[in-house]
Prior knowledge:
By secondary structure, the protein is an alpha/beta fold. It is built from nine helices and ten strands. The chain has helices at 3-10, 24-32, 56-69, 86-95, 129-135, 159-171, 189-194, 204-207, 211-226; strands spanning 14-18, 37-41, 44-45, 52-53, 74-77, 99-103, 118-123, 142-145, 176-179, 199-202.
Amino acid sequence: MDRLLNLLRGNKMTLLVALPANSLALAEAAERHGAHALKTHINMTHKASHVRFGTLDEEQDVLNAILQRVKVPVGIVPGASLDVTPALITRLAGMGMDFFDMFAHFVTPQLFEVPGISRMAAVDSSFDWATIDELTTRDVEMIEGATIPSTGYGERLSIVDLARYRMLRARVHVPLIIPSQRSLVPDDIRRLHDTGAEAVMIGVLSTGTTPEELGPQVSAFREAIEKL
């Protein structure tokens, strides 16, 4: 618990990798090539990749293998509905997950009462600024700024995107993570850092789907961060 939070508070910028599949080979490649932290998924179909992630019972063996083999913090998206229960979050905390991440409109208040695991909430383009202000004065410890509409997934980063990230950074009172809903490239890191965001989280749109594709991309993003 709090390992990612400590990185966000201490690093000039933190690199998270949202794994395109729950795979030990992908996790080890991401860590080996410079990821500061990893994110896994269960109970959902990913919007960008259309990959289906199974239940915890279905995914537990590979998740345990990842947790046992990598040294960086590992978190999880436990689902994409209001059906996620405190019992599930408690089970994930017991496995050693460092944080969980969900769209805020799927988070019931009981989930934030589970001890031993950090809390990230994602906001999308439908959230108004007053709601975002209120979220980050309560129990949210990290915000994922998933503000790009799904119709814009995979396109290049624009100056309007950067303006929205700066506006979001000005309004949230906790670390801000920018996910790669756009097709981010390493050259975008300096501009994302200039928004004030504490982290970038690259996923399938920037990493590809295999260890051979993912590894060099993670290296390139980490090198860009080290040059800041």
